[in-house]
Amino acid sequence: MPENSSCLDPKPMIKLGNGENPPVLDYNLPQTTSFVANVYLPVSVDEAKFKTSYKSHPPSGESYYDKVQTIETGQLTANIANSFAGVVATAPASMGTETSQLSVSPLVNIADAATLTLSEVPTSPVLDVKVAGMQVSQVAELSKNAMPVITTNLAGHNVIQFRPKPATVKPEITIVEHYRVNTYLGRYGAGETVKTFSLLTGEKTTISIKTYKQTVTNKKDVQNVLDSFSDESASDLETIAEQESNTHTKSSTHVDKKVSGGLSLPLPKISISATASYSKTTNSEREESIKTLNRALSKQTQKSVSNRKVEVNTETSTTSTESEESTVTRVLENLNKSRTLNFVFRQLNQELITVTYLDDVTFVFSNGYEEKKIVTKIDGLLQMLEEVMTNPADALATFQEIVNQLGNVYDYEDATNPKSFLEKYTENIYDFFNHTPGSPWPPTPPSTPIHTTPRFRKDPNLESSYTPFSGANPITVKGIIKNVTHRVLPTDSVIVDSILGQGEALDCFNLKLQDNTVLESKLNNDIKQQSIDIINAITDPAEKAAMYKKVFGDCCDVPQSGCNCVPPSNPA
């Protein structure tokens, strides 16, 4: 049998189909965590260019804020409760004032539900269901003074924002750039030394290893959105980003233009004008927002680093903690007779590579009233501008400037050669009404389209790559990379190495005794090996068996009758 062969029949761990092509383990698969950060870039347009209906308050009685004032709170509660699936507006009489804690998702716009009479004034207690985590009665009470809007936070949960009636009407167009923040696992290796200790010759000890994950009280402090995404870490990042925005930027005038989902980065302190300076201003403010995001990420990960401590305890063998996990215990012994045995424990670190890239773009018009808010993508931008602006020529000029900006985006390492986020293509509309059945469609040239329209979309072939280190597989994303940051975070794993001491703890006499003991063992092994070699040289199996019994069994040295040690060829 070959030296490295196994006595077991090698079989694949998993069989697919007939098992002839089992899957192969690949240790280089990219493992990522991801979230979206939104950058808001307001476009400065002269207010006089907007239509009157979009730069003035709605007529009296038409806005949500006017309608809700005419509805009692009890009726608002019933209206909202009846807009959800599987919910009865009033509770059975047997329930009295008891409430249900059912949490449901809305089927309709919550503001519309509040102002539409969907039930009579209840005579029994209304089931107090939850809307995005809030009791419907609380939502109804707050809705009297502010418009409820359901949005999605960074953690992906529905939350309700209550937006008060705007004091003034200020129409604004905002570019919302969606940056995807992907975190990839990089290199993995030993970090700081956690503990060192020594065992003297023949000494034995018990150790326990406790990780930071077992400390319940600092759970929030060890988490971050890069390697431990959770509700707490997402909320913490939003708080840190807001603090960074207050420190480094000044927000523009308040007009709610935020879109649902993702982390909202601060508004830039300079509005973007649809002029020749548009590109320069947009790129500089885009860079500032990305810097704000990375400052927030670095602060959060640094807090994680400072709280991720691993403890190696050589003074106790306690195996339980307040958490559900248990500490790991080990019994160590130094079997050496003359040298100490030293142990070095090091916490393992994981490199995280964060790639931030422009992934998508949304365009928002808002004047403060949610009813007038318009959200669209690039294919509907011109139509939105023509809807809110009086002069089509002004709408086209603004559209052209925005398209030019998105066609000149600089990545994280090249500040001289811009990349285009958009692709321009021609939309041809052919005469299908008069198309002859059975003939090829679309028609082949020289057919002439009845309409030809230039269109823009995100370039479907857009890709950017980054190679984290020599020999690594490149990281490729479907967008324009704006930032790459390497961070190193401690893990809850520990690696240990042993170092044999160089100093001898025995005098010359004891050292020579040990040498003689070793020599004696060697001579005994040599004797046995010589006996095995002699027996192996015998070709007759019966004689070989008899000789083996004589050498290694309880037989006499001189052949005697009845000893069963004499070969058959020479009976005693």
Q: Can you lay out the helices and strands and say which pair or pack?
A:
Blueprint: E1 32-44, H1 64-68, H2 73-81, E2 103-104, H3 110-115, E3 130-131, E4 134-135, H4 136-143, E5 146-152, E6 158-164, E7 172-199, E8 204-210, H5 219-222, H6 231-248, E9 263-264, E10 272-273, H7 278-307, E11 311-313, E12 328-333, E13 341-366, E14 374-376, H8 381-388, H9 392-406, E15 422-429, E16 451-458, E17 464-466, E18 475-477, E19 480-500, H10 508-536, H11 541-552
Helix residue percentage: 25-40%
Rounded radius of gyration (Å) = 38 Å
Number-wise, the strands total 19
Kindly report the average pLDDT value.
75
Q: Which structural class fits the helix and strand makeup?
A: alpha+beta
Shape: elongated
Order of helices and strands: EHHEHEEHEEEEHHEEHEEEEHHEEEEEHH
Distance between the termini: 40 Å
What is the makeup of the main sheet? 7 strands, mixed
Question: What's the number of helices?
Answer: 11
Can I get a quick summary?
The chain has 572 residues and is of the alpha+beta class. Helix content is 25%, strand content 27%.
Question: How would you portray this structure in words?
Answer:
With 572 residues, the protein is of the alpha+beta class. Among the domains are: 32-41 and 170-187 and 216-307 and 350-421 and 459-495, no CATH class; 64-151 and 158-164, no CATH class. 25% of the residues lie in helices and 27% in strands. The protein is built from 11 helices and 19 strands. The protein is elongated. The two termini are 40 Å apart. Mean pLDDT is 75; it is low at 85-102, 247-254, 268-280 and 316-325.
